[in-house]
Amino acid sequence: MANRGPSYGLSREVQEKIDQKYNPDLEQRLVDWIIAQCGGNLEKPQPGKQNFQTWLMDGTVSGGLQVRKQFLHDATHLCADSFFLCQILCRLINSLYPRGKEPIKKIAETQMAFKQMEKISQFLQAAEAYGVTTTDIFQTVDLWEGKDMAAVQRTLMALGSLAVTKEDGQYRGDRDWFHRKAQGYRREFTEEQLRQGQSLIGLQMGSNRGASQAGMTGYGMHRQIM
């Protein structure tokens, strides 16, 4: 995570408004789903936005481990306990695919900061390819610097909803955690039906039924008023 000083003035007001969008109840639901989906040895973090961010970044935060307070002094080195940083997101997206078809083939283990940010980018690209819309995708800095954890929640919720909706057997966990996405109903028409439709006047354009010129006078003629 980057070393960012406190915000002041307008920047602080903007950040406070962003932070207010964060949902603690949603956090617990997402943690439960990620643990159920990824399996393995993931431990549940302590409640709290900063704990959730740290857990997503390295997946090692537990009840007996305090949140790291030592941040980066530059953008090229990480703390020693961050060796497995950002792997949890890669594991999450890979778990939604059948074995052998995972989108992230190799999850690099490195302490270089730009490589860790690259893992987040790989997750975001894979999530978009899975079907998450661009408007629901968070930016790398939203997680890396903790600038907008509500956006991170939105991306994970959209991913979970897609996983439940697809019904491909890859989703693990309580299906009530996410809403199913509406499915489009595609109708097929024959050429004959399409030709018949071209001769009809749509209701949006009104109707010509009962139209008559009876009682109308020609242009330039006087009109009789009774």
TrEMBL record:
Keywords, alphabetical: Phosphoprotein
Gene3D superfamilies: Calponin-like domain
Name of the protein: Transgelin
SMART domains linked to this entry: CH
Residue ranges of domain Calponin-homology (CH) in the record: 46-163
Organism lineage string: Eukaryota, Metazoa, Chordata, Craniata, Vertebrata
Chain coiled-coil ranges: none
Family statement drawn from the similarity comment of this UniProt entry: Belongs to the calponin family.
Molecular-function GO terms, alphabetical: actin filament binding
Tree of life domain: Eukaryota
SUPFAM superfamilies membership: Calponin-homology domain, CH-domain
GO BP term (any one): actin filament organization
GO cellular component, one term: actin cytoskeleton
